[in-house]
Amino acid sequence: MTTARQSTPTPDPLTTSDASSVHGGDRWSPRLWGTLVVLCAALFLDALDVSMVGVALPSIGTDLHLSTSALQWVVSGYVLGYGGLLLLGGRAADLLGRRRVFLIALAVFAAASLLGGLVDNGGLLIAARFLKGVSAAFTAPAGLSIITTTFAEGPARNRALSIYTTCGASGFSLGLVLSGLLTSAGWRWTFLMPVPVALIALVVAIRLLPRQAGPERGSGGYDVAGAITGTGALLLLVFTVTEAQSAGWASLRTIGSLAAVAVLAAAFLLIEQRTAHPLVRLGIFRNGGVSRANIAALSIFGSYAGFQFIATLYLQRLLGWSALEMALGFLPAGALVALSATRMGAIVDRFGTARLLPIGVLALTAGYGLFLRLDEHSSFVGLVLPSMVLLGIGFALAFPSVNIAATNGVADEEQGLASGLVNTAFQVGSAIVLAAATAVITAGSGGGESPQAQLDGYRPALLLITGVALIGLLVTLAGAVLDRRKAPVSVPDYDYPSVPAEVLADR
């Protein structure tokens, strides 16, 4: 948050008129709006990149002569860099300065996107994807913590976070649509399209983003051991669950890797308890709202990632939809999320995250449940559209609410940590549930390609992700109950002069 300053020829990005907005004023200056737009653009690109490459994979494999296992790493490389380094990215934003971390990471994202669109080698393409994931691991928590430290907790922050997170959800949902359009012109455009957007955002961000006064660099040491063990545990976990499908869940490699994850995680927790300046202050989890929000985030994003994977296979392989048809099939969900962006702040202010979050997760769960009716001849109107409408409503309500809940009640100096935690929950949930869904599909189908064999794989996988969503629903319902119990009881004021004298005498 900016501080009072003397008049200088080169003022900080936030002007005096912005200060009222920072503290919750109703009117936001053009400069403050510009700051929010830049942060939204970066998150939109991060989310877009998660989903956009999926439709282009067949074309990439054919052009670069990649095997199925190598092609998987075009997706997994991004997830590995993103999910594995988010905690480090969030804490780096607190320690090194949120503005500095955001600008450097956004520049790396633009460079990696350009590299990915120009390479003619599968290994270099995977490396570019990993680098993009690493950059997103720093831009996402830095951007979120800039918002939570720029806008005061309450209506101003709720409005800003609603717009910001809805842009992220829109990028994820619309990535499939854009990918279908771009892939028809050539898969390289899915990598090159973000480059000019990222560069424009970078130029504007240099001018508009608020400078953080006094980052913690001089206030203590760095938790190097915690960074190594924590980041190592996350990287190895994401790598293990991603590779488990090909290596086998019961294989010695998978079991050994999971054991190593447990050892690194235990070492990390021990280090965090004893170090004076931890990477993750474990006391943050004593905030019940933060803990429940992170569990909900894991469930929400994990279940949706699994659903998107199943639906993509089902619509293209079994029903024979083209990439563009499938992308347009997902459009209603993305459109609902995008259209809700400007209204969600007011809705959150009126009803509160404790109410909206369970409703949103319930809509997601119902959407997955309806999709269980899939068969060999399902139609768009009969099967796909009802689920997409429910998923759009669910994401519009749940995604902003879970981000707000995950950062409320957290001190400014730990907003990067809180942002890193919730983004880590999103990515780790995505990796774990997607790997589990893939394993269930393979086991259920028995490797068969007939329509019935495919359905035998898709249905139990859909049951799995519906169960994951139900876990999130139970957690958010528990939060709503606890929130109601903690709410202050309003006692009416008595106008004693109007009360009969005998009643007062009895008292």
From TrEMBL:
Chain spans, region Disordered: 1-25
Alphabetized SUPFAM superfamilies for the sequence: MFS general substrate transporter
Residue ranges annotated for the Major facilitator superfamily (MFS) profile domain, each copy included: 35-484
GO cellular component: plasma membrane
UniProt keyword terms in alphabetical order: Antibiotic resistance, Cell membrane, Membrane, Transmembrane, Transmembrane helix, Transport
Broad class of the protein's primary localization: membrane
Listed GO MF terms: transmembrane transporter activity
An example Gene Ontology biological process: response to antibiotic
Subcellular location: Cell membrane
InterPro entries the UniProt entry points to: MFS, MFS_dom, MFS_trans_sf, Sugar_transporter_CS
Transmembrane residue ranges: 36-58, 70-89, 101-118, 130-151, 163-183, 189-209, 221-242, 254-272, 293-315, 321-342, 354-374, 380-399, 420-441, 461-482
PROSITE patterns in alphabetical order: MFS, SUGAR_TRANSPORT_1
Record field: compositional bias (Low complexity): 7-21
The organism's place on the tree of life at top rank: Bacteria
Membrane topology (UniProt): Multi-pass membrane protein
Classification via PANTHER family: BLR6921 PROTEIN, MAJOR FACILITATOR SUPERFAMILY MULTIDRUG TRANSPORTER MFSC
UniProt protein name: EmrB/QacA subfamily drug resistance transporter
Taxonomic source organism: Kitasatospora atroaurantiaca
Lineage: Bacteria, Bacillati, Actinomycetota, Actinomycetes, Kitasatosporales
